[in-house]
Amino acid sequence: MPLHLLGKKSWNVYNPENIARVRRDEAQAQAQEEEEERRMQEDDAQRRIAILRGEEPPSPPPRVSDPSLSQHDRKAHADPARSYRKRRRLAGENDTDRDIRFAQEDAEFARAKREELVRAHKNKSDAPLHDINGHINLFPDEDGRKRTEKNAEAEKEAADKQRRYEDQYTMRFSNAAGFRQNIGQNPWYSSSQSNSAAQAAAPSKDVWGNEDPMRREREKARMDSNDPLLAMKKGVRQLRSVETERKKWNEERSRELDALKTVDEARSRRRRRRSLSEDSLENFKLDEYSDKHRNDKERRSHKSHRHGRDKTSSRSHRHHSVSRPRSHSHRHHCESSQAR
């Protein structure tokens, strides 16, 4: 299936922007041509008046875009007084003789111009006034009169046959509006705005010539179905919808998992609390507190008794240690007295 991508190009001649641009450029070019034609007519009128008066005709002003003219030539054409060569008085000539000579030179120049125009008119008048088709031609072309007329029907048939053969393997810009949509019709830019508007407002008919109001809708639907850009946009929309649904499903699944995890944690906490309470009540006896109190009391009494005994022994030990030095000193005193 061929891809109809030509309608998407920015340089396609059937885009509305390009059509408006061409119309605008045509209007601007027509205005420029009218202005140039008016200036040319004014220049020709001035030259004719100067020739009829016997004066030197002014040279036509050059075009601004003419690159062959130098800057000096442009200034000369812009100012006719500078292009006019100043004529001087000859040696031994007074003012009267100079004026007479200038008048004679101007008259000869005007006469030569008139003869040149007459000769040019005579040369052109030899050509016939009517062309081959019977139309009046004021400016006949010698080469055009010598051309032989060809068979238009045979040339048209040969061109159609060649075009049908080339259509099998060639993509043409003339099919930009649609393949074989402009058969037998000129492109929009070859006609005026009124003709293009009439073509756009033409009623839609089927192949038998009957009115078919739904034909344009079907044609638009067919073009949309064959448009790869619309197919890509549709695929992108479907992909986004699938991603959105998948994201929602993942969020719901995560919420469910969090809820199940919370329920499991609460259940495990209750089970742990119940197990701790059961362990604390196991092997519980009422006499256990009294036995434990009795054992603690006995342990405290035994500890206090041992502490008292230790205190008595330490006190007797101190007394014994103090009495021993006294007996030793007494015995030493007795021995010393006996020796005397």
TrEMBL record:
<feature type="compositionally biased region" description="Basic and acidic residues">
    <location>
        <begin position="142"/>
        <end position="167"/>
    </location>
</feature>
<feature type="domain" description="CBF1-interacting co-repressor CIR N-terminal">
    <location>
        <begin position="10"/>
        <end position="46"/>
    </location>
</feature>
<dbReference type="InterPro" id="IPR019339">
    <property type="entry name" value="CIR_N_dom"/>
</dbReference>
<dbReference type="InterPro" id="IPR039875">
    <property type="entry name" value="LENG1-like"/>
</dbReference>
<feature type="compositionally biased region" description="Low complexity">
    <location>
        <begin position="190"/>
        <end position="202"/>
    </location>
</feature>
<feature type="compositionally biased region" description="Basic residues">
    <location>
        <begin position="300"/>
        <end position="333"/>
    </location>
</feature>
<feature type="compositionally biased region" description="Basic and acidic residues">
    <location>
        <begin position="120"/>
        <end position="133"/>
    </location>
</feature>
<feature type="compositionally biased region" description="Basic and acidic residues">
    <location>
        <begin position="212"/>
        <end position="225"/>
    </location>
</feature>
<feature type="compositionally biased region" description="Basic and acidic residues">
    <location>
        <begin position="240"/>
        <end position="267"/>
    </location>
</feature>
<feature type="compositionally biased region" description="Basic and acidic residues">
    <location>
        <begin position="37"/>
        <end position="47"/>
    </location>
</feature>
<feature type="compositionally biased region" description="Basic and acidic residues">
    <location>
        <begin position="71"/>
        <end position="82"/>
    </location>
</feature>
<feature type="region of interest" description="Disordered">
    <location>
        <begin position="24"/>
        <end position="99"/>
    </location>
</feature>
<feature type="compositionally biased region" description="Basic and acidic residues">
    <location>
        <begin position="90"/>
        <end position="99"/>
    </location>
</feature>
<feature type="compositionally biased region" description="Basic and acidic residues">
    <location>
        <begin position="282"/>
        <end position="299"/>
    </location>
</feature>
<feature type="region of interest" description="Disordered">
    <location>
        <begin position="120"/>
        <end position="167"/>
    </location>
</feature>
<feature type="region of interest" description="Disordered">
    <location>
        <begin position="182"/>
        <end position="340"/>
    </location>
</feature>
<protein>
    <submittedName>
        <fullName>Putative Homocitrate synthase</fullName>
    </submittedName>
</protein>
